[in-house]
UniProtKB/TrEMBL annotation:
NCBIfam families: transpos_IS21. GO terms for biological process: DNA recombination; transposition. Residues 8-71 form the HTH IS21-type domain. The keyword DNA-binding applies. Belongs to the transposase IS21/IS408/IS1162 family. It comes from Aquimixticola soesokkakensis. Keywords: DNA recombination, DNA-binding, Transposition. PROSITE patterns: HTH_IS21. The keyword Transit peptide does not apply. InterPro entries: HTH_IS21_transposase_type. GO terms for molecular function: DNA binding. This is Integrase core domain protein.
Length: 242
């Protein structure tokens, strides 16, 4: 079975269980083998382990912040004064980068595409279909427990269509408590929506890139794959009026 990331596993599960697509159609659209799709569907797993002991990282990774800064500054310049990607690559090498030009070119292209998408006018729906989306957020509240003033974290889960809320208090805001809040909320609502709307929670997002790009936490993606929730819209939509 080819190596799969949790995001692909989640896509296979949603395509089969939610969208009702055939195994053949999923193989064609996601470019994976039939055995892979069958294993994902039959096992119910949201992650598979592999024998690789180390995960190689591209040489461009340590230079992302430098590149972002250079590309953003270049984007603010008049067109005639803009540097070419070759010039940006040469400047990066002067700073110590020893990777390839192609890696810089691909990163610059991805950055430009994300920037264009972020600046384009976006339509934010003011209404939601039943079961379409839920919203998740945290608040901190001061409560009195056994005569002692204590600060607690409260998980807020609200259905976007009906505005039905679910609240649950925790001593801290940890990933395990995020998972527990989802589990209890979905049990209370009697099921999960097709997608969730979040703020940029540290328990969900490892890194924020340009525009809408997010590096989602692996375990958080597993949770979404388990409940058949689409990859979350994180920090992209305003919370609906209370």
């Amino acid at each position: 079975m080819e190596m799969l990331v949790v995001e692909t596993i989640a896509k296979i599960r949603r395509a089969y269980f939610i969208q009702g697509k055939s195994i053949k159609q999923i193989c064609r659209e996601l470019h994976v083998s039939r055995n892979t799709v069958r294993k994902v569907v039959r096992s119910g797993a949201t992650e598979f382990s592999y024998g690789r002991s180390t995960q190689p990282r591209p040489k461009i990774d340590p230079w992302r912040s430098d590149l972002d800064e250079m590309l953003a500054e270049n984007d603010r310049q008049p067109k005639r004064q803009c540097l070419t990607v070759v010039r940006i690559y040469e400047e990066l090498r002067n700073r110590g980068y020893d990777g390839s030009y192609d890696a810089v070119r691909r990163y610059a292209a991805s950055w430009s595409k994300a920037t264009r998408e972020a600046s384009a006018a976006a339509y934010v729906p003011l209404s939601f279909d039943p079961g379409e989306a839920y919203q998740f957020d945290w608040s901190h509240e001061i409560v009195l427990i056994d005569g002692v003033t204590t600060t607690v974290k409260v998980a807020h889960v609200r259905l976007c269509h009906s505005r039905m809320p679910y609240f649950r208090a925790y001593p801290r805001e940890t990933q395990e408590m995020v998972f527990d809040a989802h589990d209890k909320a979905f049990a209370f609502f009697g099921g999960a929506c097709s997608r969730g709307i979040y703020d940029n929670m540290k328990t969900a997002v490892d890194a924020i890139f340009v525009g809408k790009d997010r590096a989602y936490n692996r375990r958080f993606q597993q949770m979404c794959g388990h409940y058949l929730v689409d990859p979350p819209s994180i920090g992209l939509e305003p919370m609906a009026p209370q």
